[in-house]
Amino acid sequence: MRIIVNRLPNKFYSNYKQVIIRFLDLGEERTRALITKVLEMEESEADKTLTYTLREFSKRHRNLTHKFLKHYHKALELVAPTFTEPEQVSMVKKLLIGSYFSMEYSISSAAFFNPSIVESPDQTGLSEGSKRVIVSFRATGEGHISSIVFHTGVINHLGELEFETAGYHVDSAEVTKRHIYEKESFQKKLREMGVDELVVKPVMDSLADRFIYGELLKSVNGYLAENNSLEEEVKRSIKQIIWLADSHYTIHFSRDTHISERVIFPTSYTERKGIEDARFVRFTDDNGEVTYYATYSAYDGYVALQKLIVTKDFYTFEIKPLHGDGTQNKNLALFPRKVGGKYAMLSRVDGINSYIAFSDNINVWPAPVRIQAPKYPWEFIQIGNCGSPIETPEGWLVITHGVGPMRQYALGATLLDLNDPTREIGRLRDPLLVPNDEEREGYVPNVVYSCGSIVHNGQLIVPYGLSDTGSGFMSVSLRKLLEKILNG
Asked: How many C-beta atoms lie closer than 10 Å to residue 419's C-beta?
């Protein structure tokens, strides 16, 4: 039996018009000199320059003066304690100084790829047989820094995708770092990271069993004050402690933003080079409560740290790192419900094979078990998931990716036992989707890749990345796909 794959007409590509405001770090010496120049300006000249700047850029951003004031204070922090803020600084000059330390950043000027799709929490106002969805994308801009962006649309009764027009004022979120850390688990993660215990102990000893970010910084600063001459390896360990604490935070978007205007941009040092390949899943707990989770890779330029996003409404997102042997590589994907009373997650800890882990704690993943190895020629290099499993009466359907000759990425599908997902009960012999001539050219050629699919009206809808450049969508009959997996 032949499976008919229908490539949908919807396409997304890079968009240089989507810009956010970032802090412009000029270094301590240049920052001090620039602040001094503005403070020495005549008030009328400062007002004139600020008026011009606001006229040019206020139509491109919400709350522009709020950003300028925030960046003014951030610039002062950069030069403290060698520079003291004068007692009388007008609001005009504060805002003007902030504008000099602000820059526009085009978040998706390079690529728009590796999407996932989930049912939206808002299903109001729809015609019969339709479903509103949220699609997340990995957007990449200057310097190949990746962030998470969203679009929303509707799958109608015919299986067609109709996306809403994107909002104009794209913005990053407000960040809160008052996460409460558990000392025991924090120290365990530092050991996993290989941080020197001789540095960890004196920093952690002064902290209570539960502490907040500011208390940790106070302890670190105390350690640094008592140890003036530190070796580079010790300095690196201190940075790693701060990096780990930095990786816990909560972000908030204004309720008056359209979802296409919300950008989850790298916030902590652990992700300063990008947030990669978020796999969103609509998770239903045993009591029926729904939470949206996403696993992603935070990249600092050297190491990828696996992290978790938690949200109920796509306005407030809690971010925290994942722990345990099951999180030692990329490709993590949570199941949409507990299995056998435990959370379950797919992974690829060795970079080659597929694994599964179970846990009572969604943040800690010990003892991963290998469940799949490359079997067919198109997946000989590696096999992994392309998003969270989808529950069907026949089993857990997992869209997979395989890498074969010429490093070509193709999509496949496998079926895991519903009650014991460590057991594979079927796998497609041939790929479900391979790059065609239009899709194979891009930043990374010969790649189709997905981070999550959805079923609607008997159709499996799969969004997928096009050679790390753009995104497309395909659909296939769920019934025929399952029959092919089980019967060949």
From this structure: 10
